Each structure stands twice: as C-alpha cells, then as structure tokens.
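step: validate -> pass
step: tokenize input -> pass
step: predict -> running
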Amino acid sequence: MKKKKVAAYITVYEDAVSATQCIQAIKSQSFPVDKILILDNSSERVIEHQHPDVLILHCPENLGIGYGLSWAIIKALDWNYDFIWVFDQDSVPSVNCLEILLDTYFDLITDNYQIGIIAPTVVDTRTNCIAEGVIFNGSYFSSCKPEILKYELNNQSNYECDAPITSGSLINLTVAKQIDLPRSDLFIDGIDIDYGWRLKQHGFHNLIVLKAIMYHNFGHPQEVTFLKNKKIIYIYSSLRHYYICRNHTYIETRYAQGFYRLVSVGYRIKYLLYTIAKIILFDADEKLIKVWACLLGTYHGLIGKLGKTVG
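step: predict -> pass
step: emit ->
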C-alpha cells in the first residue's frame, strides 16, 4: 500500500463514554491515524484529552455536524493530509477497518475511476441491522439493499452508492478540494446525503466495502408488533424528528427536477404521515411534541428554512 496520511474526525455531544470508545478504536487501527480532530458540541467539556495528536474544539453553543465536518476538512487540507476519516461518537470501527478501506481504494483507483468516499459496512450490534448506503431515484433517496444482494450473490467485495452514512466515511481530500464543503446550514441529518450526491454529480464514485466493518448505534431500537408481524423501529427525540423531516424534505425536493419534484413532495408527505403513525402507535413519550416536530420540519424543508432552527 502507498503510504498516505490519514486524519480522523469525531463529532461529540454529551457522551464521554461513547466518545472515548471511538477514540480508542481509532487509535487501535492496524493502519495508523496521525491526528484526531474532535468537535465537542457538549454544554460542558466531555473530552479532556491532552495529547499532541488530538485537537479538540469545544463549542457549547452546538454548531452541528455540518460545521464540524467542514472545519475538519479545512484543517486536514491545511496540514496536507490525504484522507479524513469521519465519525459520530457512537461508532467503533473494527481494528483493520481503515486498512481494508485503503487497500480497496488503491486496488480500484485509476485516472478514469476517481473515488470520493469509501466507507465500511455499518452494523448496529443491538439489532444486527445493517445501514446501507443510499441511491437517488430522481425523486427521493432510498437504501441500496438490492445492490447489496446483487454484489453478495456475485461474491464481490464492494458496491457503489450515491451516499454512505457520515460515520465511517473515508473522504479523499484531493477530491474534497474540488467541491463545496459539507453544508453547515443543515446542522444535523442529511449532510452525508447532500455531500455524497454532490460528489457523484461531479463524476466521483462513492463505495461501501463489505469486509470493512464498523459498529454503530442508530437511535433507540424497539421491537414492535403490527398486524401480527414483528419488526424493529427506531425511536428518536423531537429534535431529531424535526431535522430528519426538514433536511430530507429540503434535499430531495431541491435535487428532484421537473415532474419528479412533484413526486418528491408526495413522497415526503407520505413519509410524514407514516412517521406520525409510528409515533402515535409506538412512541411512549412526547407524542404531540414529536408530531409537531415532524409537521414543522416538513414545512420548513418545503419553504427552505434551514440553519439551527431548534435545539
């Protein structure tokens, strides 16, 4: 493997235990990470890490994930790193995760095939659910599950998507210089979808590597029974519901063109009604507040009101 410099970045918010586990997993990689950048959005500092290879920016006003990603990319570019490996705090990459990502990158990269993001397979250990990347069908983004099945059947080791989730994504900084930074006005949620899609629009490829594994917690999983069928749903705070509804509505209705924009609006309304139904049926806390957060978020997404609106 060609020797390349890799920096890592973690967004931290009010959880010292998870953040510490993430830091240790990064430091334990079989391919060394030179520097770890941390944006601590907590009201009080949760990470006190006095090491020269760790840089912490404490922002008690909570500047969000989009700001943190932009800050980290700019820093890594200034310091002449080749890649930045980005994380949410509740993520733990397997010990050889980075090595596999880099090996795959250098096996595939050519002058005619430039990779923007290469990411691991993300597993929620509480449910064994896998977070697939997403693809854009012209109206909305949906998971790549059919693509995963196709590649597994063909015994291939990776698959393309329009955007992997933020956590675990290894961003090629040579490519990052050629597009605008992640959007801080999205604050949280959907930043990965917007950034990955813009990379694709500029002709770069985003990949998920099946053998590179990262463990990550998604919301609060809950097993429910509906019409005698059991399934896993995720319980979110009202704050999270607001930004999910707002940002996905904004992104999808802006990227959809012509007739597909109308289809996109219809899909977002369908998602809104489905989410409200889940809240009413299965969520035990703050039902009315969460329903209002979904309604307000969808409305703000449609009219384009972004930024840190709540929280």
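step: describe -> Residues 221-303 form one domain.
step: cleanup -> pass
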